[in-house]
Design brief:
With about 110 residues, this protein is an alpha+beta fold. The chain is about 40% helix and about 20% strand. It has 2 helices and 5 strands, in the order βββββαα. The strands form 2 sheets. The protein has a 3-stranded antiparallel beta sheet with strand order 3-2-4. A hairpin with a 7-residue loop joins β2 and β3. α1 packs across α2. The protein is globular.
Length: about 110
């Protein structure tokens, strides 16, 4: 969780410049890959400016979720919102790249 500062999420494409997916700021969640097997990061995180983050133990959260199903449900609801926003950001970047390739212009938001 980002406490202060700005963190950029980039998608790495081998042999090409990284693609900015989204910039995140205070109060926003950075990662969600810890929740879904195979537990592999989907994006790279890069501090754009001096930042402070709160790191949570994903394995411990999974154990708590299994013990307390209401907690697990609430956690999943919040993480699902992060995943949805991330997918929307990727979709926006794909539309922008497609428009650029075709000569059109589209400048969808990379920041929520």
């Amino acid at each position: 969780l980002i406490v202060e500062g700005t963190v950029a999420l980039d998608y790495h494409v081998p042999g090409k410049p990284d693609v900015l997916v989204q910039e995140l700021g205070p109060g926003e969640a950075l990662g969600w890959s810890w929740l879904f097997a195979p537990f592999v990061w989907q994006f790279q995180a890069r501090a754009v400016e001096r930042s402070r983050v709160l790191v949570l133990d994903g394995a411990h959260l999974l154990v708590l979720s299994n013990r307390d199903h209401e907690f697990g449900y609430q956690l999943l609801q919040r993480v699902a919102q992060v995943v949805i926003h991330r997918l929307q950001a990727v979709r926006g970047q794909l539309l922008a790249a497609s428009a650029k390739a075709s000569g059109a212009s589209w400048s969808g938001p990379a920041r929520r």
